[in-house]
Amino acid sequence: MKGGGERADRSQHRQNDDRQAEIWACLQCVMDPELDESVTDLNFVTKADVDSENRVHIEFRLPTYWCAANFSFLMADDMRRAVDALDWVKGVSVVLGEHMYADKINAGLASGLSFQETFGAEADGNLDDLRQTFLVKAFQRRQVALLNHLVGVGHASGTIVALTLMELGCLPVDDDGEKLVRRYLERRAVVGPLGADEPAFVDAEGARLKADGFAAYVSRLRRVGVNAEFNGALCRGLLSVRFDLETPFVPKSKAASKTPDSQHVP
Amino acid sequence: MYRTAKGEEIFVIDGHTHFWDGSPANQKNIHGKQFIECFYAYHSNLSPPSEKWEKEKFEKYDAKTMFDDLFVTGYDDMAILQPTYLTDFYKNGFNTTERNSAMKKNHPDRFILNGAFDPRDGTKGLEDLHALSEKHKLQGVKLYTAEWRGESKGYKLSDKASYKYLEAAQKLGIKNIHVHKGPTIIPLNRDAFDVADIDDVATSFQDLNFIVEHCGLPRLDDFCWIATQETNVYAGLAVALPFIHTRPGYFAHVISELLFWVGPDKILYGSDYGIWTPKWLIDKFMAFEIPADVTKETGSVLSMETKIKILGLNAARLYGIDVEAQKKKIRAGGGYAHLPEAVHAPR
Hints:
The complex is a heterodimer of chains A (266) and B (347).
Chain A: H1 2-28, E1 31-32, E2 37-38, E3 45-50, E4 55-60, H2 69-84, E5 91-96, H3 102-110, H4 115-119, H5 128-152, H6 157-162, H7 165-170, H8 175-188, H9 214-242, H10 261-264
Parallel strand pairs in A: 4-5
Antiparallel strand pairs in A: 1-2, 3-4
Chain B: E1 2-3, E2 9-10, E3 13-17, H1 30-46, H2 55-59, H3 63-72, E4 78-81, H4 97-106, E5 111-113, H5 122-136, E6 140-143, H6 160-172, E7 176-180, H7 196-204, E8 209-213, H8 220-229, E9 233-236, H9 243-246, H10 248-261, E10 267-268, H11 278-287, H12 292-298, H13 304-318, H14 323-332
Parallel strand pairs in B: 3-4, 4-5, 6-7, 7-8, 8-9, 9-10
Antiparallel strand pairs in B: 1-2
Helix pairs in contact in B: 5-6, 8-10
């Protein structure tokens, strides 16, 4: 009997480990909308546990107490959606710590409210426009990285703008190029249809790029990439000053601690 | 005063300094505590280790420390005092015009005292602006569009009320409008980082100069676009500049974009003192060159001529400072007595 119990325990453990890996894989795909980097790569997520009833409990924190409430809410909402898509998941709680709006956001998330419902009169719109704005920026940043790469390895602008999506997919590229193509294609749908014969490179309005004015277009886009990289560096730096990243979720300044963690997580 | 190896004297105007009190005694609530802690995180994250301050000193420094850091140890010749009221977070305000005016009073040739207004203060606020301007002969104001005021979490320059204040500023001869467009204070979904309202008022108020502090970070890309289209929009380098130490590669890209889109005549140096100090910032800036690959990409070069403009000449133009006359005044007051003898020698 005892041996059977241990086996069951081990199998339970294994299942639990697998499930946790699945959760982290889902979270890996959730981006900070502003930085276009994964919330797990940015070290925002401090906990992602499964309980015995297959409910998932996620905790996260951000680089400053003042990080925009709308972005904070958006990331929490995206995390919840991503993990909830797993068929075995019976519920998701997401808790934000060390933030000026932590209580409000956590209460809203726990009751399944929208950003607008959570903040009422203080919020004057929904998050969809904001989400779209930053998806377009992410598309632009990924596009300029790929265009620079293609120009760098010797493709003429005329050839680049003539490519269809199918042709881009078949283009012989090295490992770096392959990653850039994959990242670009992940956001290409933000601005236009994805048919095989559609142009590979379109602008934010969905119009095919032209060889004429190509260099000026790339210059304009470069700003978006520089901005995002700068913000990424700032956010990582501030997070590392604020928290001990080795032992997650311990604020360096204990006195500020006002985390509502025990409130929603059993 | 910065002196090059060749003996050239560079006149430095620090476009962004504060004389604040963020000490626990002055904090009104948790937000006041978190605000100065956030500033301290910027300081800790981006300063070279040798330049890091103790938290207590950072929370509240005295007038002599500030004077020495700017003008004796540091290379500043003059500094603009930019107020940040934050009266919802601090009992006596964080860094008010009144508090700053003590610095100006003791060192009139060294400081330019800026005021502030908040369009949500209505008619009373307009009267106050009038009085403040008369008392201190203001040439500039610093605006915090993201500042909390009771239930309100910020405003836009394009709001009707803001127009009234900008019209009043114009009449009072306040021509330099510094606007905080950068990180630290929250926006809700009224996006206080958004720079679109600058575009609106820069077009409507052609006689005013709009200095976008922190060059619109974290929206540098949108800011650059606006600044190319408006002749009266400037970039303040505070917060961007300290990256020159921790992330020189990123700084190279940022300054290149600013030079490309905004141009060398419209970028202003600012230390954001006490977050950072002029000595190390300017040492690094003077030694800095944009790497060849970035220049190849953007065509931007940070020449000596451009550095001199950024460090002082651009601000001198905005504030009507006659550099040679001002140097004479400062020298006559013993302001350069600490410098090596050679600086005084005629060349």
